[in-house]
Amino acid sequence: MMSPPDDKPIPMSPSSETAAASPSPASAMEAFKDDLLKPYPKKVARKREKQIVVNQNKPNISLPQIQANVRTIPGIITQRGCTYAGCKGVVLGPTRDIVNITHGPIGCGYYSWLTRRNQTKPPTDSDENFIPYCFSTDMQDEQIIFGGEKKLKAAIQEAFDLFHPKAIAVFSTCPVGLIGDDVHAVTREMKEKLGINVFGFSCEGYKGVSQSAGHHIANNQLFKHVIGRNNTPHPGKYKINLLGEYNIGGDSFVIEELLERCGISLVATFSGNSTIDAFENAHVADLNTVMCHRSINYVAEMIEKKYGIPWIKVNFIGAKSTAKSLRKIAEYFGKQELTDRVENVLSEEMPAVFEVQNEIRKRCQGKTAMLFVGGSRAHHYQDLFEEIGMKTVAAGYEFAHRDDYEGRRVLPDITVDADSRNIEELHVDPDSDLYNPRKTPAQLEILKKQGVEVAGYEGMMAQMDDQSLVLDDISHHETERLIAHFKPAVFCAGIKEKYAVQKMGVPCKQLHSYDYGGPYAGFKGAVNFYREIDRMVNARVWGLIPPPWEQSAAATGSPGTLADEEDPDLPQSHARRRTPVAGSDE
Amino acid sequence: MTTPLSLPVESHAAASSRNACKLCTPLGACFVFRGVEGAVPLLHGSQGCSTYIRRYMISHFREPVDIASSNFAEASAIFGGQQNLRAGLLNVIRQYAPRLVGIATTCLAETIGDDVRSYLRDFRRDFPDAPPVVHVATPSYSGTHVCGFHEAVRGIVDQLAPAADTPGAPHDAVNLLPGMVSPADLRYLKEIFADFRLPLILLPDYSDTLDGQTWTEYHRIPDGGTPVADVTRMAGSRATIQFHSVRAEPATAGRLLQDRHAVPCHTLGLPIGIRQTDAFFKILESLTGRPTPPPHAAERGRLIDAYVDAHKHLLGLKAVVYGEADLVVGLASFLAEVGVVPILCATGEKTSHLARQIAAVAPQRPAEARVVEGVDFLDIETHARALKPDLIIGASKGYALARKLDIPLLRVGFPVHDRIGGARILHMGYRGAQQLFDSLVNEILEKKQQESPVGYTYL
Questions:
Q1: Are A106 and B112 within 8 A, CB to CB?
Q2: pLDDT on residue A421
Q3: What share of chain B is helix, strand, coil (3-state, %, to 5)?
Q4: Which of A431, B17, B185, B400 could link B428 by a cystine bridge, Cβ 3.0 to 4.6 Å?
Q5: A1-68+350-407+463-586: CATH class
Q6: CATH for B174-288?
Q7: Annotation: CATH topology of B25-160
Q8: CB proximity under 8 Å: B 168-227 to A
Q9: Which of B291, B289, B269, B290 lies closest to B280 in space, CA to CA?
């Protein structure tokens, strides 16, 4: 009943049939990388060379090193966002009962207003839900010159008068740090005055390499100001927190339902479909499960240190991974009753999933995908493609760090640069009253032998094939060349890339906002995703677009007119002219 | 959730903005730069601004929109962004081979007082062959996206047209400065000029760049846009026509061309609805000495015929109109002539002219009708609840209100990110009025039909 569909071997490159003959697959990919770098001036090529890696995934050979979390060069269009976006938009945005106030000019608040499509479900219509609201202090000249603290105080008071929320959070935009506003002094004062939790974030946009810095700042403040404020014991059994799941397209709802059916109690989710009450109570759980390692591992680590709650990496994207994650949780708690319930749920869910997999494989088997998104999705979604017979030939993150690519074993070797030093590292000691290690070191050792590694994450590259291509913070130039060379059946990215990719005749699936679809988590979500990918890659509309690489390779336009400079710079002329690439059929 | 709102009704008393009815200044500038041929916008400041603005423009236009950034780090925020701007410019120039780089500043660069003008002088000294670079100061703490739009148009004309008092070589073309309208509007305006056989310099012209075709080859910069050479010729044009109702006149590009180069400037509100469009066509008739070309006269005739056909469905309905002040004036004028009362006219801008302009285009409104400026969507909701409108006209951000009040939302303007075809919404001229009118009536009929217990199929 639970037999998976046939696993047919998948060719490494879809273009291999049409590509010029190469000596061996290994050198073909290295050759492609060389060609990719060739149009860049030396300095840029040197930088990109380290951020583009041909994966080596063989027994007894360690994964190659990749450079990540370094600044994008000015003038190169990046898909990355800012520190504020990571803090306000990603981590705090999905919580429904905190009033979030953007302290700054109007744009930042407006652009982060509901754009991530986080869903939330208040128990009743009269329960608080501030997600549809976008509060901003709407800074004007006057505040830039004379300071904005007064206006911020008034805005906090106004939000309080309007909604009487349990908590108010304040997010700093670029000008705030520069004009010397002390948001933390203001929030302290207002917390005292209003008698509710009011806290601030110094998440000015320019502070980090990308939104990743904002995640870290958000984690720190959640830990300092929210987690651990309520010690009420949770009545449930097998208590866990789910970290790094943001309920895009309703993913959290699917996961919540699955956990409930398995008899696992969810204390808090950071931060899909969440409330501040749940955050405050999160330290009473007995296990932290981490979905998006990049955005939330800091909280997992700090909770472990202060309260003794171990964390494990889970992934509810993909049927196989969902099953594996549920089994991991059951193994951690080590109770037969729980294991039985999990197995029961799996046997209820899997047949329907396999049925759809089998149907869709008929149309998708052997096709290829590329994923350039996020800090975890480019990894997690490879599972879903695998399940319908599609191979990921190239992938990379927008804002991840080395550990998300190579696994946490490289953590001690990661260089700390000025940008990383910019973000506060909280020093955390065990809580004198509440520290309670949930497992002894011996128990953890046994769990590890059973495949449940505490505080472990293998990263994306360990899952990707030998000779697949990994690119960090991919550029436009590289995107175009990758698409022309591999002709993937689908390219996964965000809205900023979507229409450029589709102009090239390749469907682009948004994995930030899910193209306003979803859910994709759990078993229901997996089926949703299979069907959507099937519809996208097999849509007849692509037949109407002759892809650029099938056109006569007429070079148009002229190259840039300037000589090489010392400044960091970009390829000359590739904008309008394409150099032929060995191994491609341009 | 039902929000317990107890706000004062008459004005925006709030210290903060709650669900803003305006966007930020550099976004408007990016619109304009995308409408110049071969131009690439570059935001001087933090990278998040270009990412946010790109995602907003892309979600409306559903087209690639490249906007570069000079990617400030903490050090540039402290010591100034000259090195970043220089590197950014060089990389954009090498990568895109642009014909123009349009620089708009973000709040970050403006707050630290970065001297972009002097940076650009140094840059020009070191790279005399570089393509023209236009710079517009667009701090978001001063004005809205509409200001950024008009500042950029003025900046382009100011920095590319010949120096003051130099008369441009005279030619027959007419400058048209249409304001922030849709690509469909721009295409239609070009068609009108062509039919009048009147040469046109349209600035900006993003009719192709932000509503393009599929590609047969790679494009870093989409085809289309106002040629830079045309901008430099604007000083010698026969006349300028600019559409706006509420801008401070001395700050407009049309006025600049008149004052500096003696190009006569005709200013009129956005030609939305018959009366405003008649005023526009009258100017074209007088400039060309030709009558309105027959196809356009016929469109006008059909429009009036349609007004007659459907008048019974609209008479006495009350509408909430919000958005850019110029658009609100145009829509109010259209509504008034088809019998719908613009019961609430609202904008996030602060112009202090809106009430006067609305009074001029829609003089017969009941006493309770309101015109409000500098408001956000919570203010609009408070007013709307008191005024009990039958429909709402504006961009997608009003959907939440339409849903709460259970009345139709007719989507116009920017941003429209919950429907396909935001770029192809036609607002202007007889044809635009026809489309607005049909959509408006059909929204009303749809609701009537849905709510009718009988479900009539003849309406």
A1: no
A2: 86
A3: 45, 15, 40
A4: B185
A5: alpha beta
A6: 3.40.50.1980
A7: Rossmann fold (3.40.50)
A8: 212, 214-221
A9: B269
